[in-house]
Structures are given as structure tokens and as C-alpha cells.
């Protein structure tokens, strides 16, 4: 009887300790939303290698640079880029002051909700939309417009806030890298002034660590004092081969780790991983239609074709959303 009671007590103690052990294990895992496997191991092994003093692959903290694409790498880019949704909303908001848009393309199609015709207007039409909605105001005014819009803007497919449709595993990865002495940057084809108002709140990445496409700016005197005005002229496109140029211009150092999701990130990955020493290149592969979206080679947004073919040869790791991530979004 005594033996049975003793066994029962021990068993109860073990069972009670199991949740505590699980919690302790979760606390020691820097990437709890990642499934154990080759991809997660590659990240952990890389970080250990470049942060171990005296090791052959050690990298001093001032050279631990990691770059992340934004659209499709840190948050959802389907069914359209978030900045495009912003521009379309701006057309609608500005329409009362532009009655001529009712008969002028591509604005006419935007106001009619005819996205096929908007798409058919091509780069010229998009440039007109961006010029009309992103220029002709001060940088402070534009920042306020973006800040107010992003606070309520929702994904048209899910109805969730865009800022809620960020990838939990990538947030963990950013925090993990920062905890290990990395300086983390966003390097995106999106507008630099569009991203800077919200990246610190959303990702913990400050505005000075954002590299993106830009339009020309001009310093002017006004009745309220000096302002920097946004002009309707393209300054720099931070996409494809522009990304390494943007990195050099803004950061001044070659990254040792880069993360993207599309062919637009090919040159950033190539520039990063062909440097000397230990390097890491990773591509988020959208292969989870159940929890997000499934697309790659034939997608009109976030096309992943050339980079996917090059990955095995270049040593880049494909991150499978379906197989490598326990969860996709923070609320799952």
C-alpha cells in the first residue's frame, strides 16, 4: 500500500512537471514557430558559426549584417502589394478634387474598380498613379497619410489588418539575429518613405534600417518653415539589380545573410552569398494554400522562378511555409 502510494506520488509529480519542462524547452528555443528540420538547423548552425569567438567562421558584430525583403518575405503580398492598395485608396480619396479623373485612364478604371484595365495600363499607368498619390506634398504630410492608412488598412482576401498578416517565424528570426549581434535591414522594392512610418512598430526595425525605392525630394522654404517636398520624379528602384546598389549606398557593407521570396531578390541573394566567409541565403517559398497562398513560377506578384532554379547551385535554402513553419501569422 505504501509502495503504491509512493508510486502514485512520483507519477503525479512527473505529470505536473511535464508542462513546466515543455515551457522551459519553449523558452530555450529561439525559433519556436519553426519545425525542427534542415532549414531551422541551417539558421541555428549559421548563427552559432559566425558568433563563436575564436572559431573559423567568426564574424565581428559590426560586420553581422542581415537583409530582408519585405513583400512576401515579412508580410503578405497577395492578392496585391500593400503599397499598391494604398495608392488605389489614395486615388479614391483624392477623386473629389480631381473631377477630370472620371474620364482619364488609369484613374477612371481605378474609380470603377476595374482592376483588369488598371493592370493593362502597365508600368506607365502605375507610374501615373504613384506620381499622383505619392508626390506634391511634404515628407511630413506623406508620413501622416501613410500612418493613418496603415492603422486601418485590411487585406482584401482575409479582411485582416495588413499589419496582422506578418509572418511570425520571420519575426522570431529577426529577433534571434538581433539577439546575436546582427544589424537587421529591410531591403525592399517598396517605397522607402512608405515603409519607414511603420516598420519599427511592426517588425522592430527602425526607419534608418529601411532601404527601398524612392522618388526625388526637394528642400523648399514655406510659410511654415523649411520642408522637404516629394516630387513626381523617380529617383531609385530598389529591386532586382538595384538591391545590391541600394545596400551599398545605404549600408556600405555586404550582408552575410539575406532573405527574400522572389526573383526580385535574386541579385541581393547572389551579392550576399558570393562574399568571403560564412554566408546564408534563404528564400520563402509560398507553398501553403491552406494557411496563406500558394504561388511561385507563374504568379504576377512575387514570381519565384529563376531564383528557385538557382537555389541548389547557389546553396540557398528554400523555406517551405507548409513544412518549415508551425504557424504563419501571430494569431494562429
Automatic annotation (TrEMBL):
Residues 1-26 form the signal peptide. Gene3D superfamilies: HAD superfamily/HAD-like. Pfam families: HAD (PF12710). Keywords: Hydrolase, Signal. GO terms for molecular function: hydrolase activity. It comes from the Bacteria. Transmembrane segments: none annotated. This is Haloacid dehalogenase-like hydrolase.
Amino acid at each position: 500500500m505504501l509502495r503504491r502510494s509512493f508510486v502514485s506520488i512520483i507519477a503525479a509529480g512527473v505529470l505536473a512537471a511535464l508542462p513546466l519542462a515543455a515551457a522551459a524547452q519553449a523558452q530555450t528555443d529561439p525559433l519556436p514557430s519553426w519545425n525542427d528540420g534542415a532549414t531551422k538547423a541551417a539558421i541555428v548552425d549559421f548563427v552559432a558559426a559566425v558568433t563563436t569567438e575564436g572559431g573559423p567562421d567568426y564574424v565581428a558584430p559590426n560586420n553581422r549584417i542581415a537583409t530582408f525583403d519585405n513583400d512576401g518575405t515579412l508580410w503578405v503580398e497577395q492578392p496585391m502589394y500593400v503599397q499598391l492598395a494604398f495608392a488605389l485608396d489614395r486615388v479614391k480619396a483624392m477623386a473629389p478634387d480631381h473631377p477630370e479623373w472620371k474620364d482619364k485612364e488609369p484613374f477612371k478604371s481605378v474609380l470603377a474598380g476595374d482592376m483588369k484595365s488598371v493592370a493593362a495600363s502597365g508600368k506607365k499607368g502605375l507610374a501615373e498613379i504613384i506620381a499622383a498619390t505619392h508626390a506634391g506634398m511634404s515628407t511630413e504630410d506623406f508620413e501622416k497619410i501613410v500612418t493613418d492608412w496603415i492603422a486601418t488598412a485590411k487585406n482584401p482576401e482575409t479582411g485582416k489588418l495588413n499589419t496582422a498578416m506578418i509572418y511570425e517565424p520571420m519575426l522570431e528570426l529577426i529577433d534571434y539575429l538581433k539577439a546575436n549581434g546582427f544589424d537587421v535591414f529591410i531591403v525592399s522594392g517598396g517605397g522607402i518613405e512608405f515603409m519607414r512610418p511603420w516598420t519599427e512598430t511592426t517588425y522592430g526595425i527602425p526607419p534608418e534600417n529601411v532601404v527601398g525605392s524612392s522618388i526625388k525630394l526637394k528642400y523648399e522654404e514655406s510659410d511654415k518653415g523649411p520642408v522637404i517636398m516629394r516630387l513626381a520624379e523617380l529617383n531609385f528602384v530598389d529591386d532586382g539589380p538595384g538591391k545590391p546598389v541600394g545596400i551599398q549606398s545605404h549600408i556600405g557593407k555586404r550582408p552575410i545573410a539575406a532573405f527574400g521570396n522572389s526573383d526580385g531578390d535574386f541579385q541581393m541573394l547572389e551579392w550576399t552569398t558570393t562574399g568571403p566567409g560564412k554566408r546564408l541565403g534563404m528564400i520563402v517559398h509560398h507553398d501553403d494554400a491552406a494557411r496563406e497562398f500558394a504561388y511561385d513560377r507563374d504568379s504576377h506578384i512575387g514570381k519565384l522562378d529563376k531564383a528557385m532554379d538557382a537555389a541548389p547551385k547557389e546553396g540557398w535554402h528554400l523555406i517551405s511555409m507548409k513544412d518549415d513553419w508551425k504557424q504563419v501569422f501571430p494569431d494562429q
